[in-house]
Design brief:
single chain; 192 residues; six-stranded parallel β-sheet; globular
Length: 192
């Protein structure tokens, strides 16, 4: 069975991304489709803005933080990006984390969990699809979109999901499992 990494994109103080990521992690573990589920917090990874002298396609990394990030992304078979919408797009920290690497992302499916106001982060989801497909990732149609996100966060900063959110998460995990297995031969044949 595959390994799923849930990447929490927001790094700002007061973010709701971490509680949402923790909720998605619990949902993924309950789903049971992945042998290993790991929450990866970009605030903890703390990548500087791209500072590698060589193109990521070459895999010639000069910094330890890049080698560590490469190893983390390589070990995953599938991803969920938990991301806010900032000004009709996704946040710079996620773009930076993606751009550090190249082959490590290839042939891996990605589910999108977005949140925000009335649009529920859907514009950020649309924008990131162009980027991930360039890296030969497969973004899923099945997604979790959370409108007016604060209404689903309790006083202890835990997510209290509604039925739509829970059903959407299950559908996304079902498809992530399917796509991860379908893409496995390509990942195993890919040069890393």
């Amino acid at each position: 069975m595959a390994k799923l990494e849930i990447i929490v994109a927001s790094t700002r103080p007061g973010r709701v991304g971490l509680p949402i990521g923790q909720w998605i992690e619990a949902e993924a573990k309950e789903h049971g489709g992945f042998a290993d589920v790991e929450l990866v917090d970009l605030a903890e990874i703390n990548l500087p803005f791209m500072n590698e002298p060589n193109h990521p396609r070459l895999g010639q990394y000069t910094h330890q933080h890049t080698r560590d990030w490469s190893a983390k992304v390589t070990e995953a078979d599938a991803f969920v990006f938990v991301m806010p919408e900032y000004n009709y797009g996704y946040n710079a920290e996620l773009k930076n984390a993606i751009d550090y690497l190249h082959k490590e992302w290839n042939y891996k499916p990605v589910g999108l969990v977005t949140y925000g106001g009335v649009a529920a982060g859907t514009r950020a989801a649309q924008m990131i699809k162009q980027v991930v497909t360039t890296l030969k990732m497969t973004p899923l149609f099945e997604a979790v979109s959370i409108p007016f996100v604060r209404q689903f966060i309790d006083d202890e900063e835990n997510v209290v999901p509604n039925e739509v959110m829970t059903a959407s998460a299950k559908a996304m995990f079902d498809e992530l499992v399917r796509m991860s297995e379908i893409l496995r031969p390509l990942r195993e044949g890919a040069v890393h």
